[in-house]
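Title: Comparing notes on inverse folding

I've been comparing how different people in this forum approach sequence design from structure. To keep things fair, I'm posting one structure and asking everyone to reply with a full sequence. Here's the target:
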């Protein structure tokens, strides 16, 4: 097994860069440089030694989760078995980011059948239409009212039942053992324990766990979670019924009633994940598999479509070339405006995702790329591109269809995206490729750090109800799912996986994914360099662009001269995401890379 190989670890110059990187990380700031930063040796990258390609690759945000995925593959499991095992472990070691009280989505590619499926299991409104829900986030008065029906358990087990090869008890075993035996608290968990002190004291059981004796758990100490281990054992033994019915469900509803939550036992029992075809895009001969609504795949694909007409590779990297950075900024801003205007739950209301992902729509919206820089960029009208109910097919892969609903009446005012722009990196992601060429990309979340703070039977519960608003496609209603910026994405070439990618980071997720696709496939640079390139994040409601320190002067000056207001953040800032990806070279080698902004890990053999 090749495991956690450090790039150029014996190079004296790189060691010096690592020391500099550590200093910058400790102080939380760094000087503005005139050249693009090069990768220090803290990058975690796995590649075949002596040109022998690894057959499998697992990239996650924690070593124990990566190890769990590798173990499933060694024991004869496939990419879905590895994903489910890794995800349950992440819920144990990253309780602030994800877990069985949250939700998410995953895209699966089955090589043998050349079939692509998307499993959407974001936390959703309940089944009881008689119970009132939130009209807007401002109407939520208690932490309990922030909680939507959790989808992680149902989503993971549904995918495992359809594609997995190992027994359910085996894929949950690593998570159960980790919760029962404990693990060493890592710095990011320790930091969030301190930052979220008030939230962790909403429930006494959580306070006793994370503030034993009144003192916060610190990095290097052990966290043991026996109650969570017991809950996971029930799921291993009984499947979804063990979580959505019986004592775990009853305790949760009793707990939520204390804060006037509308959730009922029937809501939990009735929860079902949604299985859909992925949203398809075609970028310069590559097939993009992105999540359909209410996830953010439409933004990923539209950004690429807007840039397809430009010969970016001849211009130079956006991190170095003024025009390339300017085009990238405009494209991201334009596609973000469209997603915020039109995205939502496609059940019962029109969401023009396939139209937004079309070449014709990109042609119409491209007028904003390289043009004027308005203070607030308006969304477009994709409805003129809608082909009612038509199925999308690219390279014999069946994708998400055009909506069969009429255009909803919407507010003409620009949507407020300030909440999305200010959130931290409160999600987690993993990417996996197995030896048969199957692949999974999974993003899941609690919403905010430690979710709502509501704690029951060893786990926290989400804040997904905060994501609803009063727009037609995103309003509260029976079984409805709020829109999300998560976007687990794959790129295929000739029915062969080339890139498996995703990230946490709220609204920064689609831009981070697009930048990785462009750097690795359009520019052809090593994934190691790609993941270290400084990133950008343009706002839609203002002309502000947040840029990661590391850009030279000329590209930034061009943005400023065009009318953008630049806000520079520290290099390798957690704000800009935590990409975990697997890149497959043209000759079939697997390269796994974990983002230094998140300190994740990759392993392969």
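Reply #1:
Here's my take.
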């Amino acid at each position: 097994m090749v495991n956690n190989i450090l790039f150029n670890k014996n190079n004296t110059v790189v060691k010096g860069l690592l020391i500099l990187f550590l200093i910058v990380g400790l102080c939380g700031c760094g000087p503005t440089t005139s050249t693009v930063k090069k990768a220090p040796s803290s990058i975690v990258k796995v590649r075949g030694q002596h040109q022998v390609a690894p057959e499998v690759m697992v990239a996650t945000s924690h070593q124990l989760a990566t190890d769990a995925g590798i173990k499933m593959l060694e024991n004869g499991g496939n990419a879905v078995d590895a994903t489910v095992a890794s995800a349950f472990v992440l819920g144990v070691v990253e309780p602030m980011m994800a877990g069985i009280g949250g939700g998410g989505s995953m895209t699966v590619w089955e090589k043998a059948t050349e079939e692509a499926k998307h499993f959407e299991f974001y936390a959703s409104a309940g089944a009881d239409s008689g119970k009132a829900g939130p009209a807007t986030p401002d109407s939520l008065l208690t932490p309990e009212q922030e909680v939507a029906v959790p989808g992680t358990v149902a989503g993971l087990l549904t995918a495992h039942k359809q594609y997995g090869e190992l027994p359910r008890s085996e894929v949950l075993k690593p998570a159960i053992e980790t919760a029962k035996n404990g693990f060493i608290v890592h710095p990011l968990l320790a930091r969030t324990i301190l930052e979220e002190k008030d939230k962790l004291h909403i429930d006494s059981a959580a306070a006793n766990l994370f503030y034993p004796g009144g003192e916060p758990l610190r990095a290097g100490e052990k966290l043991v979670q026996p109650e969570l281990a017991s809950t996971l054992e029930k799921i291993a033994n009984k499947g979804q019924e063990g979580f959505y019915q019986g004592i775990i469900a009853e305790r949760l509803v009793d707990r939520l009633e204390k804060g006037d939550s509308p959730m009922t036992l029937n809501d939990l029992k009735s929860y079902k994940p949604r299985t859909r075809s992925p949203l398809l895009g075609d970028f310069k001969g590559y097939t993009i598999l992105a999540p359909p609504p209410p996830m953010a795949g439409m933004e990923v694909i539209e950004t690429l479509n807007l840039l397809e007409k430009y010969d970016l590779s001849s211009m130079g990297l956006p991190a170095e070339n003024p025009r390339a950075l300017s085009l990238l900024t405009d494209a991201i801003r334009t596609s973000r405006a469209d997603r915020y205007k039109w995205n939502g739950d496609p059940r019962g209301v029109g969401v023009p995702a396939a139209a937004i992902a079309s070449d014709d729509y990109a042609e119409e919206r491209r007028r904003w790329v390289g043009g004027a820089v308005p203070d607030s960029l308006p969304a477009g009208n994709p409805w003129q591109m809608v082909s009612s109910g038509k199925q999308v097919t690219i390279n014999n892969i069946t994708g998400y269809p055009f909506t069969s609903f009429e255009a909803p009446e919407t507010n003409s005012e620009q949507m407020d995206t300030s909440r999305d722009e200010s959130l931290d990196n409160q999600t987690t992601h993993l990417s996996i490729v197995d030896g048969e060429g199957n692949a999974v990309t999974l993003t899941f979340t609690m919403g905010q750090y430690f979710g709502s703070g509501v704690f029951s039977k060893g786990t926290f519960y989400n804040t997904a109800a905060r994501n609803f608003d009063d727009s037609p496609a995103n309003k509260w209603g029976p079984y409805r799912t709020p829109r999300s910026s998560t976007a687990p994405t794959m790129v295929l070439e000739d029915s062969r996986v080339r890139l498996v990618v995703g990230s946490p980071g709220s609204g920064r997720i689609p831009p981070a994914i697009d930048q990785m696709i462009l750097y690795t496939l359009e520019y052809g640079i090593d994934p190691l360099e790609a993941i270290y390139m400084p990133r950008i994040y343009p706002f839609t409601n203002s002309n502000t662009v947040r840029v990661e320190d590391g850009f030279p002067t000329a590209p930034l000056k061009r943005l400023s001269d065009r009318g953008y207001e630049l806000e520079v953040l520290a290099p390798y800032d957690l704000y800009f995401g935590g990409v975990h990806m697997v890149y497959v070279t043209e000759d079939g080698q697997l390269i796994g890379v974990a983002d230094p902004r998140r300190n994740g890990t990759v392993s392969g053999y």
